[in-house]
Recover the amino acids of this structure.
């Protein structure tokens, strides 16, 4: 990626600052969490001793000087070989130092690189642990908020179901009014059968007409 791809003129710095001022004020818990995170990330590097796995290699990095002269032969041959080795070292030690100087510098560079890698790996592990703790705290807050909203929704649904059940029970318990028997003009409801006159009444009506 080139530098031109990262540079932008829209939105401007004034627009970003104006929109930033509209953001809500963070809570005290968020401020404290951010402060602790910044303090942990800005902690100065601590000089630590060499790790245990490199201590032995560090003691042997200078190959110009060997260990004490010994011999496994017995009798007079052993002490003679020890004296010969010591004499050889005293005579040829300057040549040995010059021949192995580059090798010693290479060994020191390798050990320094390994120590740096060890320190970087340890710092990376510490950063990962801090990040994991921060993520766990955020997940815990999200779970608590979700659990609270779920409890509120459950209580609201239970209240509504109880209200519906109470309404149904009240409707079932209320007595229905009996059908009213009308008299006079109220008795002739629409669709009701009209009473027929009796035979005697019809005869009297006929005799009166005559």
């Amino acid at each position: 990626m080139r530098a031109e791809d990262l540079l932008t003129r829209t939105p401007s710095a004034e627009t970003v600052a104006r929109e930033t001022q509209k953001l809500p004020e963070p809570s005290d818990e968020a401020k404290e969490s951010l402060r602790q995170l910044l303090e942990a990330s800005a902690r100065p590097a601590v000089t630590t001793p060499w790790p245990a796995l490199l201590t032995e290699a560090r003691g042997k990095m200078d190959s110009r000087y060997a260990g004490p002269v010994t011999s496994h032969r017995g009798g007079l041959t052993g002490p003679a070989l020890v004296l010969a080795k010591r004499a050889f070292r005293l005579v040829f030690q300057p040549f040995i130092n010059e021949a192995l100087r580059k090798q010693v510098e290479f060994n020191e560079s390798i050990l320094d690189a390994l120590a740096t890698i060890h320190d970087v790996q340890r710092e990376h592990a510490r950063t990962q642990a801090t990040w994991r703790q921060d993520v766990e705290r955020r997940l815990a807050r999200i779970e608590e908020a979700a659990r609270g909203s779920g409890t509120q929704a459950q209580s609201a649904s239970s209240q509504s179901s109880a209200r519906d059940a109470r309404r149904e029970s009240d409707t079932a318990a209320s007595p229905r009014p009996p059908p009213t028997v009308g008299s006079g003009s109220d008795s002739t409801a629409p669709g009701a059968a009209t009473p027929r006159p009796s035979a005697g009444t019809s005869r009297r009506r006929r005799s009166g007409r005559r």
